[in-house]
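Usage example:
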Amino acid sequence: MADLVLPTSLQDVEQIKSVRTPAELRYQYTAGAATTRFLRGIEQKKILGERCSVCGKVYVPPRGSCPTDGIPTTEQVELAHKGTVTSFCIVNVSFYGQAMELPYTSALIMLDGADLSLMHLLQEVAVEDVHIGLRVEAVWVDDDKIGPTLESIRYFRPNGEPDADVHQPGEHGWGDLEHA
Amino acid sequence: MPTSINPASTDGGISNMRDVAIISFAQSDHVRAVNDANEVEMLMPVTAAAVAGANMTKNDIDFTCSGSTDYLAGSAFSFVSTLDGVGPWPPIQESHVEMDGAWALYEAWVKLQLGEINSALIYCYGKSSPGPTHEVQSRQLDPFFVAPLWPDTISLSALQARALLESGKATEKDFADIVARSRKAALDNPHAQLKWDKSADQVLAEAMLVDPLRKDDCPPITDGVAAVVIAADDVARAHCDRPAWIRGIDHRIESAVLGLRDLTDSPSTRIAGEKAGVARGSVDVAELHAPFSFQELIIREALGLGGDVDINPSGGALCANPIMTAGLVRFGEAASRIIDGRANRAVAHATSGACLQQNLVAVLEGEG
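Running the assembly step on the lines above writes:
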């Protein structure tokens, strides 16, 4: 910079620290066949997983493929509206757009009949009472509010059943699976 | 760095190189909009066909490398989701480039040269229909001084076309000849999107879209995917009767600042072509990634391809232009003609960035 000769008006000026270049692009999301099947099911208050014909695992929400075998899933499986908490965390930090009161619990829930945990909220339970193995059920929004979104399930809450045995959080989260 | 082991960058270095070949290629039909399938659903049949075409299963693939840009889908890390379609469990060796799939092929080729692996699946996808493609592409430009002006792809290419015309190197008739030849050739390509048989004079009779470009000088907006399998030495020979051996491959980049470049020339293509060894033998067929008609003239000139070379028998990107994919399709189309015996020596070219900013060139050969 030594030899750069500047006019007086540009000497010792304040550094530019930001510029404003707004950008907005609008997209029309292509959900795809499997996600469409799942979300249309939600509209009918059904939770639909999809089973791999090779390994037998049931994925929910389905993406149309089995990540183990790399083939399309073909068989639809209607899952129970209840399941088991396989892991959870208690959120004590607020973030932009947050609608929840602090603290609240976010949980991985293995729906009965599924091989993949679904992430959702837990309510109607004190955070200190949440634990792995807790049996929970879905609480849906009012029927006239149901739409093709996972928000049609407001949250999960304990359903009063005895705890399930969770020996391997993450993959097969609860007892023996009928199709295992 | 990859270039240090490029066969052409050191005299006689080629003897130290592993033989690597494209042994299989698959692509989707290319269409204006796929509304009933997402990216992973579009890819699954094509990656499966490429692997099956190599007489392999997913367990025979040592490395998977993909090319795409999340700006097309408008969704972060969409490329990670597409891995579901290749069965990435138990965990696989994988990489991704925010580039055309041809650059993913280059990365896989380097990994094969290092001796770490013997085979690789390369896939790429361009699903432009969810967003405003031409505005989306402006996001790759300088974010402070150029992108805020939202220059669309056609306007940028028209700047380049005007420079070419004014230089005296080409005429509008030359542009129209390329359009007529390409769209006619695409009649034989079941995957192509735009195809017809019209004369150059009929093309010239059309109105200007962005002067000096007519609509026919521009590529269509396309949804499409493609995949290839490459393999080294005996693995390639065991899985393919007539592999398309990659005898040379090189890529070069020019400044992102359009004002710094001679837009009527492509020095990056010229150097990449020299390093890849294009001139070391006669060329039967060349698949050139020229989305806009006139760009073919610039690339041909830079590669020194004469009138005897069959250019873009597939119809080229002018007839189907899935972003991040049309370059790998050129590699696949060129390789297919080696594999099925229609050609002995082919040139494959891919481009990326605005106005031919980056260019990748490979020479493919059959044996016997």
